[in-house]
Amino acid sequence: MLEIEKRGFLTEEKYNELLNFLEKKGTSLGMDDKEVVYYIYPDKLLKVVNNISKQNSKVSLKTSKVGEGSAFPENEVFFDQKDFEKMKYIFDTIAKPEKIMDGIQKRRNFEYNGCELAIKWSETWGFHFEIEKMVSNHGEVEKAEKELHNVADELGIKILTDKELKDFTQKAEKNERVRKNN
Predict the structure, then answer these.
(1) Residue 7 — φ and ψ, nearest 5°?
(2) Rg of the chain taking only CA atoms, in angstroms
(3) Could you give all domains of the chain from N- to C-terminal order, each with its CATH number?
(4) Model-level pTM?
(5) Which of 6, 46, 80, 173 is deepest in the core (most CB within 10 A)?
(6) Which of 134, 148, 141, 149 is nearest to 74 (CA)?
């Protein structure tokens, strides 16, 4: 499976408007607050995630970085929430990424017109959204991307270009909260 994912920023007003609209017209998939540790490599992103709202945890590997295209495999392994601190310790000890970032993410998930939307807030990103679809092969990517853009247009939200995403993530990775893994 390939995840086709797009992102964009929201004003606080648009964030609240979108939540209201999706509560009425979309299908709520519920709260999905997370504590996330990002292990940043030159060509991939490894995450250890405490799914606070869902009361589980996971390790997730995206074989691409944000801003390096929108279609990539994502592999996830779930584990018991009580083991989150142990998993963080293991990855902090054995993973040798360029950088490590962490933070809390407030998030609500919805399904709307065949797309999954996460309406989010985090300290690094502020108010923002992710819109995504899963496809089974590369031949379905173009159609899925068009569907994502159509839904974004309908909702009046702007999807960031790969360059805008790459520029933002590079800036965020230089933030003083980023810790080097020594």
Answers:
(1) -135, 160
(2) 16
(3) 2-173 (2.40.320.10)
(4) 0.85
(5) 6
(6) 134
Residue of 87, 90, 3 whose CA lies nearest to 49 = 87
- Nearest to residue 152, comparing CAs of 165, 140, 161, 141? 161
Contacts 24+ apart (CB under 8 A), 92-99: 92/37, 92/181, 95/39, 95/46, 95/181, 96/181, 97/39, 97/40, 97/41, 97/46, 97/181, 98/40, 98/41, 98/42, 98/180, 98/181, 99/40, 99/173, 99/178, 99/179, 99/180, 99/181
**Could you please report the per-residue DSSP string of 73-122?**
-EEEEEE-GGGHHHHHHHHHHH---SEEEEEEEEEEEEEETTEEEEEEEE
Q: Any idea which of 10-24, 57-71, 84-98, 145-159 has the lowest mean pLDDT?
A: 57-71
CA–CA separation, 67 vs 45, rounded Å? 12
